[in-house]
Design a protein that fits this description.
This protein has 161 residues and is mainly β. The protein has one domain. It has one helix and ten strands. It has a five-stranded antiparallel sheet. A hairpin with a 2-residue loop joins strand 3 and strand 4. The radius of gyration is 16 Å and the shape is globular.
């Protein structure tokens, strides 16, 4: 039965990718923590939770009345990206940003993929951001925003940018 479920889940994910649908994932990496990218860890940099990126958001989705956006901006002359949750948030809602860079120096990370977060909303209506990281024109250097609501706990991620 487990093999059937795995095959069915893989087929559903492939169909979703082929049609450009935002993917809902059942779980997140077991060892992910906010400390993986806070305080300058692995090339990330902290900034205020009310930070705003450029007006053109590379990726976004809504869960209920909460909005999750992958923001981009410029810091010290370099383009950066960060994840953000805003709107009608509730304590316990979570946001994080995934980053992958196949073939790059991964700042001593174990794999070419890193989850920055999760970061947890502490008060109703709070906007919350992840630390930011510089972007690249290399198509193998990618970001996406992910999150979940306290009301159902389902993990949803945007497409990679």
């Amino acid at each position: 039965m487990r093999l059937f479920r795995s095959t069915l889940a893989t087929a559903a994910a492939l169909c979703a990718v082929a049609t450009g649908v935002v993917l809902t994932q059942p779980a997140q990496p077991a060892q992910a923590a906010a400390s993986d990218c806070e305080g300058g860890a692995r090339g990330f940099r902290d900034h205020p939770d009310n930070a705003e990126g450029d007006t053109g958001k590379p990726r976004s989705f809504n869960l209920g009345n909460a909005r999750f956006t992958l923001e981009k901006g410029v810091y010290v002359g370099q383009q950066i990206a960060f994840g953000k949750i805003s709107g009608e948030t509730r304590p316990g809602d979570k946001v994080w940003m995934d980053w992958r860079a196949d073939g790059w120096d991964h700042d001593n990370a174990v794999s070419p993929w890193l989850q920055c977060g999760p970061f947890t909303v502490r008060s109703a209506g709070q906007s919350l951001t992840t630390p930011f990281r510089r972007t690249s024109t290399d198509p193998q250097y990618q970001f996406r925003v992910c999150g979940s609501l306290i009301s159902d706990g389902r993990v949803t991620c945007s497409d990679w940018w």
